[in-house]
Amino acid sequence: MPRRRRKADDHEHLERWLLTYADLITLLLAFFVVMYSMSQIDAKKFGKMAQALNGVLKGGESIVRHQNEALNKGHGLLDIGNLRMIQQKIEERFKQIDRQNDIKTEITERGLVVHIMESALFKDASASLEPRALEVLDLIAERTRDIPNHIRVEGHTDDRPINTVRFPSNWELSSARATEVVRYLSQNHNIPPDRISALGYGEYRPVRPNNSIENRAQNRRVDVVILTMELTLKEPSSKMYDFEGNNQLSGQTALDSMMQTLERPADSVQQLPAQPGNDFPALPPGDPHAATPF
Fold first, then answer.
1. CA 68 – CA 45 distance, rounded (Å)
2. How far apart are CA 46 and CA 106, in angstroms?
3. What does the alpha-carbon distance between residue 267 and residue 173 come to, in Å, rounded to a whole number?
4. Alpha-carbon gap, residue 99 to 112, rounded angstroms
5. Residue 131 and residue 92: Cα distance in Å, rounded?
6. Tens-place pLDDT, residues 42-97
7. φ/ψ of residue 248, rounded to 5
8. Cα-Cα-Cα-Cα dihedral sign, residues 220, 188, 147, 72
9. Are the beta carbons of 113 and 186 closer than 8 angstroms?
10. Fewer CB atoms near the end CB (10 Å): N or C, the chain?
11. What is the pTM of this model?
12. Cα 72–Cα 77–Cα 83 angle in degrees, nearest 5
């Protein structure tokens, strides 16, 4: 009987290596899972964190902290779902005043785009807002002034050339129209200037071929683009930066940079005669290059 018990014990001891083997396989699996997850680190987030740490060590403020503050607040930045809600409210509001033909809206990868037709804002070849334009901009501002997303205003023209004193090309015309809209929204609706910007694309971003009167009318427009969360975070900050190292300047570094600029030799700076209310020398009235009033 003792011999049989010894054989059974020996058999049990021989199978215990399976427990150690199973533990080893489990540990190896966990190890490779951890290694794989580490290889999937977001390079952009890692770069931002390194940049923020570098700024703190130099005495500046953290860049990432400002961006994360907006995300940590209750309202956060608007996602596509909220942008769709704003789109519906804008369309309903314009239908109520029977001006739905003055705008078109769409959701793109950039965010919510509100296309405003030229006829709703400007006269042909002009960058001065018409009285009827104010109602359009006021309605759009109602739904956009209180959101944290960046607003980009883009001017567009058709392919008809222009060559005037104020607008030598469609670049100047489209940029002036976008700037006029930005100025109105910022000054009259208190949209922070660092949360809105203007761009001019000339005739180079058409939505229709410029082969008919109707299509050209569609291309002459101003687009108000409410950027998505991702693109808003990529917009340049209003803080001062070291452009060479792409790092935020500390207060002392910025002061030293300005002092170096002021200490440059006087002969290296072009001196212009001072004019009351005008930074540039006035041209004689009979000069052919003198610009006519707008």
1. 12
2. 33
3. 36
4. 19
5. 22
6. 655 666 666 666 665 655 544 444 444 444 443 444 578 889 999 999 999 999 99
7. -75, 135
8. positive
9. no
10. N
11. 0.59
12. 155
